[in-house]
Description:
10 strands; FAD/NAD(P)-binding domain; binds flavin-adenine dinucleotide; elongated; alpha/beta; 230 residues; 4-stranded mixed sheet
Amino acid sequence: MTSSRQTRIDAPAPTWTVGADVAVIGSGVAGLSTALRYVQRTERGRVVLVTKDRLSTGSTSYAQGGIAAAMAPGDDPVAHMVDTHLAGAGLCDPLAVHVLATQGPAALRWLIGVGAEFDRTDGGDLALTREGGHRADRVAHAGGDATGAEIQRALQAAVMAEERIEVIEHALALDVLRDPDTFAVVGATLHVIGERPRRSRRRAGPGRRPGDRRNGPDLRRDHQSAGVHR
Length: 230
Ligand SMILES: Cc1cc2nc3c(=O)[nH]c(=O)nc-3n(C[C@H](O)[C@H](O)[C@H](O)COP(=O)(O)OP(=O)(O)OC[C@H]3O[C@@H](n4cnc5c(N)ncnc54)[C@H](O)[C@@H]3O)c2cc1C
């Protein structure tokens, strides 16, 4: 549709769509954790996780500096909050600091539970270090300065082992789709990069094989647009 001020080009119809209970966009620590937390907290429901490049691409693998959490004996979230505000010199969002300090220990324990291997002392405790403005031993590392890479590795392995999560790589999310009445997000459009059939990565368990149509549509794609919806 064209007006004197604006030219609109209608997008072609999607060449395939995939339905899911939850669609997660991105495969860094945020996306992988969200997908895993959903299946851990529910008994049924499928997740489709789309990511614009390979599963491993993103900032998470580059993070080197470790994770601060009040885990040491004698340390506590309030002390963590105080140190963070002092170091932030008034620039920190109080709500964000509160979440960081109070939920950090549980989040770190959760990462350990899904398989992330943090550095340990000879006695087997977390090898927490004291850095920056922290006045307690509070920073957990993995592989020295490879903390993000270890978190990415562990989360990826956990996602790939999960039957209810389907991963679609090389799929760039373009727009969210909204319900016209409620305005709630009900899907997304994707630009799938490369000329090949829909490629998904999921564990092929008993009775489920790649290409099995019970996994949802497994359509040949001859254009580069697709949709994910619920
Ligand atoms: C060099 C470097 C060093 C760092 N060091 C530290 C550190 O020491 N300590 C620390 O706490 N933090 C550090 N960070 C920050 C930390 O890495 C990030 O805060 C964290 O990884 C963000 O996680 P995320 O999942 O939000 O993003 P990412 O890990 O970047 O994941 C984003 C994902 O979304 C995908 N994506 C993006 N757009 C689309 C789209 N349109 N469609 C589909 N997929 C899409 C990407 O491909 C990627 O998979 C560092 C970052 C960098 C770059």
